[in-house]
Amino acid sequence: MKHINDFMKMKVSGSKIVMVTAYDYPSAKFVEQAEADMILVGDSLGMVVLGLDSTVPVTMEDMIHHAKAVKRGAVDTFIVVDMPFMSYHLSIRDTLLNGARIMQETGAHAVKLEGGGEVADHIKALVKSGIPVVAHLGLTPQSVAVLGGYKVQGKDSETARKLIQDAKKCQEAGAFALVLECVPRQLAEEISAALEIPTIGIGAGASVDGQVLVYHDILTYGVNRIPKFVKQFSNIGEPILAGLNAFVNEVRAGQFPENRHSFTMKEEELKVLYGGKV
Ligand SMILES: Nc1nc(=O)c2c([nH]1)NC[C@@H]1CN(c3ccc(C(=O)N[C@@H](CCC(=O)O)C(=O)O)cc3)CN21
Ligand SMILES: CC(C)C(=O)C(=O)O
Ligand SMILES: [Mg+2]
Question: Pocket residues for ligand 1 (CB within 6 Å)?
Fold first, then answer.
């Protein structure tokens, strides 16, 4: 299993870090089998597995419930768990209690949280307490209500400069990696060159140190809207629907189950059961 030091080395050597989200036992098993470097139990689970409109309603209980299942499916992969909305803002004490719950109850290796300078003290406190932190800048979906939608961030020189400063603050606070979501590729390249810690991009172009995508987006698995930065590497919706349609049709047609899909009783047991009147 790769660990924090390996991700740092991968940046230096130029080998790309591959991160994929997973939300349950089977998805974690598949991502581990595909040999991704890291699994992210993303709060995007609120949207792709719970059917919510945003990641804002996702709770600590949701994250822990799903992360425990992911850990059972991926015993040998580095696991990062998103800290959900408002779980790292109230006080340093609350942040530490929530970070500790994620680490102790799920067996995760690190947590991820959204924001820059405004959460730097919380990143610092977590790292000082022994909890590795991945930072997340650019489009930070937990702030969608403030950002006014899922929009590309850092398109003008002023907001770009702010993002570069925030990225440096995350590194200074002790984050060991930084997710950059939905920022212009030139800005992502600039931030990646300016930092010693690896950057992991989603909609941030190719000049970052790694890539992350949502499991359901990669596979086209029950997703409604696909962002521009997603490549649909396969469409598992088709074989899923084909299998389900076949089951429904065969039951209705009396073709399933066949005898080989069921169990039988010995003739003598049947005789006893019917009082010898077989
Ligand atoms: N399925 C899924 N994939 C994700 O990557 C994802 C989620 N859900 N949920 C949580 C956040 C929300 N994310 C999103 C959602 C939508 C766009 C989007 O539609 N972006 C526009 C760009 C808008 C602009 O031009 O500024 C796009 O066309 O891609 C981007 C990121 C990323 N995360
Ligand atoms: C999209 C990634 C970076 C994420 O934060 C999530 O899946 O929740
Ligand atoms: Mg997230």
Answer: 44, 47-48, 55, 139, 141, 150-152, 182, 214, 216-217, 223, 227-229
